[in-house]
Each structure stands twice: as structure tokens, then as C-alpha cells.
Amino acid sequence: EARRAGARLGHTVHWLAEVGSTNDVARRLAEAGAPEGTVVVADRQAAGRGRLRRAWWSPPGGLWMSLILRPALPPEHLPLLTLAAAAAVAEAAEGLAGRPVQVKWPNDVLIDDRKVAGILLETVSHPHGAEYVVAGIGVNLDVEGEPVPAELAGRLTWLAREAGRRVTRNELAEAILQRLEERYAQLHQEGPGPVLAAWRSRAAWLGEPVRVALPTGEVAGIALDVAPDGSLVVEQAGGRRQRILAGDVQRLRP
Ligand code: BT5
Fold first, then answer.
1. Does 74 share its domain with 173?
2. Amino acid 128: pLDDT
3. Is the CB of 105 under 6 A from ligand 1?
């Protein structure tokens, strides 16, 4: 265990060798009553996951981290935690890499259109209203000579490569937790405005034609904005605007 003295997030950090998914470890700790701000970090994940049970490649050298949050936010603002985390990771990565870092709706962090990090928020509600959120953050930091899986080659990048220097997991985790702590407090104190503004200022593809894959089909149009509930606003041909709560965005190139 390590500590960030006096911090709201990261007061307790469990560093583990190999786990299935740090999100599962954090969930077990949360169920057992671990307080908000407890953090789990693993050297590697055997079953790291993304949204919709997709696999997340988690070799040694990356930052695979989950945080327990017990937010006092209205339920409609919970999706903003994903945007707050993505903005915090982008800010931290940009500071360390010295390269512009963008966010892509809803949960991606990109450098030059390649994914450097992803966020996976899992919310657990109980009948009695007690609720916690596990915020999983995966950052490709270094790949330590591991071959990049063929299906990801050219679509991902890692921070050491972009920074042109070694960045330690410690300094990256510290920078992310510090930024996230600020954004998390801001969300509670000031509502969605500042977090949305921070996210928008780094957003990739706003104003551009996109195609969004939904469980039920597909929507094509211009990605106009992100709404106060964290949804993506897409303007379809003919001017009809649609708010999308979950989906995968692809850029449409002319
Ligand atoms: C995400 O899902 O981007 C969320 C990733 C969250 C990972 C963290 S690590 C700590 C915590 N514990 C976990 O088990 N998870 C969290 P999604 O938007 O669904 O993107 C998944 C897709 O990204 C995959 O289908 C691949 O195409 C691609 N991908 C997989 N591994 C990647 C990697 N290391 N870097 C970049 N892209 C990757």
C-alpha cells in the first residue's frame, strides 16, 4: 500500500502484481466498505476489459488503475464522471508528454488520432440507495517490448513513445489523481459547466461528420456538442438533432 497524504483520491493505493481486472478488485473492496478514493493498480491484467465486455490489452508497463468513488451527484450527472476522468487523463498526459492530447466521446483519450487511454465507469446501485462507482482508467505508458496485437497496430499509441522519454507509473498516477480530484470536486461544487468546458476544449471531431454505431443501428450526422447529461448531440441530414447516450463514434472522411 502507498499513500497520497491528505488526498481525497488515492489516500490508499493497493499495488498488485497480476489481476483479472482492477475494476473487479475495486468492486470487491467497495462492497467490503472501502472508502471513496481507494485506488487499485496492477502490473498487468489477464482480463482487462472495455465497454460491452470488449477486451482491453493490458501488458506490463501500462497504468491499469481503478478508483472507488461515492459521488453525491444527481443520477443524470453520473455519465459526466467519464468525461471528467477523460479530461483529467488528457490534462495529465499532455503535461507529461508535451504533446497535444485529445478526448473522443465518450471515453477515449487520443494523441494524433491514436488511442493512448480509455476509461471504463461501472456504477453499482443497491436497493437501499447506497451507490458507488468504480472508475477504471487504462493508459498505455510503455509496452516493454511486448508486440502490439495486430488488430490494434496503428490504432493505439503509448506515452513513452509520444514523450520520447521514460515516464514512471508513479508520476503518471499522481498527475491523473491530482487532476481528477480537482475535476471531481468541481463537478460537485459547480455542476456540469466547467467539466463540460474542459472536455469540449480538447474534443476531437466536434463539428465534423461522424457515424455512431448504436446497439440498435446507426446514426450519421455532424457531431455538434456534448450535452449536460454527457450525451453526444448529432445533427442528422435535414436538421434533426439526436442525443446519444452510448455508442461508438467513427469519423466520416469525405
Ligand atoms: C475502453 O473501452 O476504452 C475502456 C478501457 C478501460 C481499461 C481500464 S484498465 C483499468 C480498468 N480495468 C479494466 O478491466 N478496465 C479498466 P472501449 O471504448 O470499449 O474500447 C475498447 C477497444 O479499445 C477494444 O475493442 C480495442 O479495439 C481497443 N483497445 C484494446 N486494448 C487497447 C489498448 N491497450 N490501447 C488502445 N486501444 C485498445
1. yes
2. 63
3. no
N-to-C CA span, the chain = 51
Of ligand 1's atoms, which has the minimum distance to the CA of residue 22? 12
Rounded average pLDDT over 44-60: 96
Which one of 16, 25, 54, 56 would you pick to mutate in the ligand 1 pocket, going by the greatest count of ligand atoms within 8 A of its CB?
A: 56
Residue 38 domain flag = yes
Give per-residue pLDDT as tens, 129-146.
558 999 999 999 999 889
* Ligand 1: nearest atom to the Cα of 108: 3
pLDDT at res. 125: 85
Q: In this predicted structure, what is the pLDDT of residue 254? A: 58
In a domain, 86, yes or no: yes
**CA nearest ligand 1 atom 30, residue:** 56
Q: Does the residue 4 lie in any domain?
A: no
Q: Report the CATH number at residue 225.
A: 2.30.30.100
Distances, alpha carbon 241 to alpha carbons 200, 229, 232, in Å:
18, 15, 10
Which residue range(s) make up the domain with 54?
Answer: 12-200
**Quick one: 135 and 244 in the same domain?**
no
Q: What confidence tens digit (pLDDT) does each residue in 64-84 have? A: 999 999 999 998 899 999 999
Quote the CA–CA distance of 89 and 135 in Å, as a whole number: 12
Please tell me whether residues 246 and 163 are part of one structural domain. no
Note whether residue 244 is domain-resident.
Answer: yes
